Amino acid sequence: MLAKRIIPCLDIKDGRTVKGVNFVDLKDAGDPVELGKRYCEEGADELVFLDITATHEKRKTLAALAKNIAQHLNIPFTIGGGISSVNDASYLLEAGADKISINSAAVKNPDLINQLADTFGNQFVVVAIDAKQINGEWFVFLNGGRLLTDIPLLQWAKEAENRGAGEILFTSMDHDGTKNGFACEALAEMSDLVGIPIIASGGAGNIDHFSEVFTVGKADAGLAASIFHFNEVNIPELKQALKCSGISVRY
To answer: Which side of the chain, N or C, has fewer Cβ within a 10 Å radius?
Structure first.
């Protein structure tokens, strides 16, 4: 079994790390570069930086931030937000990003996944999916959770894989920031459907939630934000606890 990954996520707005609940009520959580350095030192396997208002505000991700991050890290990091072309992705790759995350732009132009995978390789392309349950069914949302689509979650995840995505980053909007656990049932269904790694996001509140998402949810990586930002869960302790429960983690 491949070792499970622990991935802190830094949501960026106006150059600062923020965190909210269910995608709203954002609060400042610190400087993204300083937080990134801290997580690197604590043993995070990867980092994800998402410029969460780039698409909504119709601007591009700040490549300067990518350059600054790259100078201070020795672990892989993914940047997303406002990427809508091969040129956008190329700029971030040159700035030091190891992967890029696309969300709304991929839904609006699915061929973008193919273009990025053909140009840079599948491993470079992370398709992020924000979804929420509507009357018991999961549907994809765009523009930072502001726009509901009629696209079923699992259908889109499978299409993303078929088009060349190397990973899927699934965030449950219902669970985001609640600290009540991940959307394990939906994650397990997705894992059974696709053959690429799934990063679980939304709902981490304690160590047990990570154990559950790796077993019940069948996720390949667990992503969290506020519990790491505000020192509610310590990465070394989390990894040790997972190891003791028989879950393979990286060291």
So the answer is: N
> What is the DSSP track for 99-165?
EEEE-HHHHH-THHHHHHHHHH-GGGEEEEEEEEEETTEEEEEETTTTEEEEEEHHHHHHHHHHHT-
CATH of the domain at 222: 3.20.20.70
Partners of 138 in beta bridges: 133
**From CA 92, how far away is CA 55, in angstroms rounded?**
16
In a domain, 146, yes or no: yes
pLDDT tens for residues 106-115?
A: 999 999 999 9
Where does residue 70 rank: exposed (0-12), middle (13-18), buried (19+ CB within 10 A)? middle
Assigned domain for 221 exists? yes
The phi and psi torsions of 174 (rounded to 5 degrees) equal -70, -30
Q: Is 249 contained in some domain?
A: no
- Whole-prediction pTM value? 0.90
- Alpha carbons 126 and 122: distance in angstroms, whole number: 8
Residue 250 domain-assigned (yes or no):
no
Count how many domains the chain has: 1
Residue 187 structure tokens? 């994650």
- Where is average pLDDT lowest: 28-37, 148-157, 161-170, 220-229? 28-37
Contact 128, 169 (CB under 8 A): yes
Residue numbers annotated as active site: 11, 130
- The mean of the pLDDT values for the chain is 87
Q: What is the pLDDT of residue 24?
A: 45
Q: Whole-angstrom Cα distance, residue 206 to residue 103? A: 27
* Domain of 235, in residue numbers: 5-244
160-174 burial string, b = 16+ CB within 10 Å, else e?
bbebbbbbbbbbbbb
